[in-house]
Amino acid sequence: MSLITPTRISTPAPAAPAVARKARRGGVPYAFLAPALVLFVLFLAAPIGYAGYLSLRKVKVSGLGLGSKSRTEVWAGLSNYARSLSDPDFLPSVGRVAAYGVIVVPTMLGLALLFALLLDANRTRESVGKFSRVAIFLPYAVPAVVASLLWGFLYLPRVSPFADAFEAAGFAAPNILSSSGTLWAVANIAVWGGTGFNMIVIYTALRAVPTSLYESARIDGASELSIAWRIKIPIVMPSLVMTFVFSLIATLQVFAEPMTLKPLSNTISTTWTPLMKVYRDAFVRNDIYAAAATSVIIALATFILSFGFLKLVGRRAFNQED
Amino acid sequence: MNLRRSPVATTLLLLGAAYCLLPVLWVLIASSKSAGELFSTFTLAPSVHLFDNIAELSGYRDGLYWRWMANTALYAGIGAGVSTLISAMAGYALAKFEFRGKSFVFNVILAGVLVPGVILAIPQYLLLAKVGMTNTYWAVLLPSFISPYGIYLARIFAAASVPTEILEASRIDGAGDWRTFGRVVLPMMRTGLVTVFLFQFVAIWNNFMLPYIMLGDDKLYPITVGLSGLLNQGASQPAMYTSVVTGALLSIIPLIALFLTLQRYWQVDLAAGGVKA
Amino acid sequence: MKKFAPLVAALTLLTVTAACGSSDDDTSTESNEKVALTYWSWAPNMDKVVAAWNAKNPNIQVTVNKQDGGDPAVTKLLTAIKAGSGAPDVMQAEYQKIPTLVSADAIADIAGEAGSLKDKFPQGSWNGVTLGSEAVYGVPQDSGPLMFFYRADIFEKNGLQAPKTWDDYAAAAEKIHTANPKQYLGTFSATDAGLFTGLAQQAGASWWGVNGDSWTVNINDAATQKVAAYWGGLVEKGVIDNKPMYTPEWNTALNDGTQVGWVSAVWAPGVLEGSAKDTKGKWKAAPMPQWDAAGPATGAWGGSATSVTTQTKHKKQAAQFVAWLNSDPEALKLLATTANVYPAATAATSVLTSPPAFFADQPDFYTIAAEAAKATKPFTYGPNVNVAYSAFNDAFGKAAESKKAAAFTESLATMQKTTVDDMKNSGFNVAG
């Protein structure tokens, strides 16, 4: 697997001879891996397999369905998949998540990169840098459920300070949770929560860049902007790629934010994102079979997208590993 | 490196900080308001009822909130601790040994990063129920012991911070594999492992779906599930907004404290991984 | 062996944990043996009600696990039933969920164990737990007859009386909103399917029915159409609001006097007190506005029974407890005063003598409630109420946002189709 170790990218030569001397020692590595593998099988592989199995099953009710023996589980073939894909709400929810991703990922990573570069450029008082770094990172400590609740309060026109500000200025307060604004409202929570974390990842990658690499450019009179653009960004590219992939995965899994905002607004339906549809089918409709089928579809799509992306950029960005 | 200060950089950073702090500031102000004030006074006008609210929250069902807090600490602390150790072992094996099936194992674990927790929660429940373990602490702890992302990170850190020469030397000295791992490898990976611990700690602390499904007894709830329950009590009960807002504030504090104390690890860490390899 | 220490450790851990998890069952059903029952409920202070039982029944000790509300509790119960373990012995179940739970074989028929209780409950509540059959799937605990609540001070200022008919209500809504464009007499909440169902029930709808060996579904009937058109009309005119209830915004509106009426149920005082404490003394309770003033009718919102699950190993003891909880005079008093529910049992009228604290100035509160309980129209729930309710949520959410009356009535067709399709897909016999 050549794609996986972004932080080793700046690693100069010594890695190669080290690899050659890696130990080959019978059962030892398996013993070290054993707890992880056992738990992986029990709590990831088995449940996934079970979900796959459930996705091919369905409950058949007979008659009124009220007697205790009126329900039997039968094979469903691919009918759950067919139902899931042909659900008129499914495609719009996929489209919504795509639009959400187009908003969130570039905004979040753009801001994260900007803040990381600003911090790294050392052009502010040290106290400002420290304070901002902690402040921007802080939302990472707030659970998505709580974050959505807080933002929910800030969005609702009657309780929002923004609305008060608008009214004081003599404008009508915009309703952020209206049909056109909801996507942005949800995206904002994700950007708020994720920027700091990505900033730290990029910032640490930047710190690992030896200053000698751009000290000379600086002496030659290159502007900070062009140093950032020509030297720093290319060097942290592997980190950016990885943050991109993980952000993409998180995007496809968007769930907690719209779920928490849903009761506050008419504009978030029970199938607003594909995972919400899974939740609705499993927990509201008690149809875990349909939920399992949709889950499998989502997992496959995530898999294809992220690995596809890694393959696409992989060759160039990660050409150094073993 | 005495660069001239840039007002643009300062402004941008402070704007970013303000954006990130605004909701936190709001929750601080809101939790100082009485129930009536929360819905009547100007949003950003603070009041003096913070301690009343904390007292009321603490009084809810004989201090259940603090039990949730303790549960969360237990889930996140033990879960992240064990998970870090397991990840360290696996990451070390993947980084420093050659063995059959290595790339297969690694790719499979990596694919595990991609699976959403929401999807796993139901089948995990059904399987745990078969051994009668739902509605116990274990139901939340065991699934959180395995973290594909933690293993992925641990592999990077092991590769970067444990020089193969030192392992060789330790072996030549006659130290067993476990002794080498415990005495040599773990200390060298320490900074990286703090990061893995923090990741997993935050992930468990923020987790909602798994405990929500697994637990029927609210004495076992973590904070996220408990707070969401205070909000959604069904139509015939009022949503307890004041308590929820206060509870949200109190629940953020431990994590902030943790971040501030471990801040040095945070930044040194990933960077060190890159440089020392 | 040393090399495999972690593996051994991991396996030991698993064995230990498996042992820890499965330790809480006692298999005996002997009646004089000590048994422990778990009881899932979301009513506040239910543990204090149950304490009275525990004090008198040392051999049947009941532990209350407080739940987050009707939907999450049912979700967890159904998952536990599917898994084959993890369910409580006793469970609070809303009336509209009972057919679902019976259909999933989650709650047991306790006709043989509970004794003769039928005469202690109004017929409507009793039908809710028998589904019209000989079986008894629980004992009614509380009911939620619809009532109307309004800000007496605002009504007085506008020279209005409590509306007797829905025409009066519409006129009052318009007058209030015209006098103060920020004020609304109510809101149409697309997140509260239960209330809309109650309103349809009042108008004479019964969305499901059993016809021989088949279900019938009538969500898009004339009565429901009338209700949807009425509320859609008010929203389109803009004289009532279109935002969901129970949001911070709604709380604000209750507090600052811009939401001046609430079509709700008998349990409303608790919600109003929790959401808008400072408005105490300004509210009054009234019977529901009527479609036909000559034949008063109402619907229900909420209300639940206590059921025994099919996973219990102590069905007899559980049934005894459930019967006591919902029909014993001491329990009824505790239910009404401590758990703040409106007991379904007819004997409860004798314990409900003083009005709820939030309506202290209205001595006839429980008289109005009792009248409403009596006037509750019959309504049959089907086995997939949740499907219909989530379809309501989505379709009416869009309609409320669009503020078009036509969208409201069209939404009913969507609900009807979604509900029927789901039943057919599962294999239920559905007529038509």
From TrEMBL, chain A:
It is found in: Cell membrane. GO terms for cellular component: plasma membrane. The lineage of its organism: Bacteria, Bacillati, Actinomycetota, Actinomycetes, Micromonosporales. This is Sugar ABC transporter permease. Belongs to the binding-protein-dependent transport system permease family. The chain crosses the membrane at residues 30-53, 97-119, 131-154, 183-206, 235-256, 288-310. GO terms for biological process: transmembrane transport. Keywords: Cell membrane, Membrane, Transmembrane, Transmembrane helix, Transport. Residues 94-309 form the ABC transmembrane type-1 domain. Coiled coil: none annotated. It is a multi-pass membrane protein. InterPro entries: MetI-like, MetI-like_sf, UgpAE/MalFG_permease. The keyword Transport applies. Pfam families: BPD_transp_1. It comes from Actinoplanes aureus.
UniProtKB/TrEMBL annotation, chain B:
Signal peptide: none annotated. Coiled coil: none annotated. Residues 69-262 form the ABC transmembrane type-1 domain. It is a multi-pass membrane protein. PROSITE patterns: ABC_TM1. Keywords: Cell membrane, Membrane, Transmembrane, Transmembrane helix, Transport. One of its GO terms (cellular component) is plasma membrane. The chain crosses the membrane at residues 12-29, 73-95, 104-125, 137-158, 193-214, 239-260. It is found in: Cell membrane. GO terms for biological process: transmembrane transport. InterPro entries: MetI-like, MetI-like_sf. Pfam families: BPD_transp_1. Belongs to the binding-protein-dependent transport system permease family. This is Carbohydrate ABC transporter permease. It comes from Actinoplanes aureus. The lineage of its organism: Bacteria, Bacillati, Actinomycetota, Actinomycetes, Micromonosporales.
Automatic annotation (TrEMBL), chain C:
PROSITE patterns: PROKAR_LIPOPROTEIN. The keyword Signal applies. Residues 1-18 form the signal peptide. It comes from the Bacteria. Keywords: Cell membrane, Lipoprotein, Membrane, Palmitate, Signal. This is Extracellular solute-binding protein. It comes from Actinoplanes aureus.
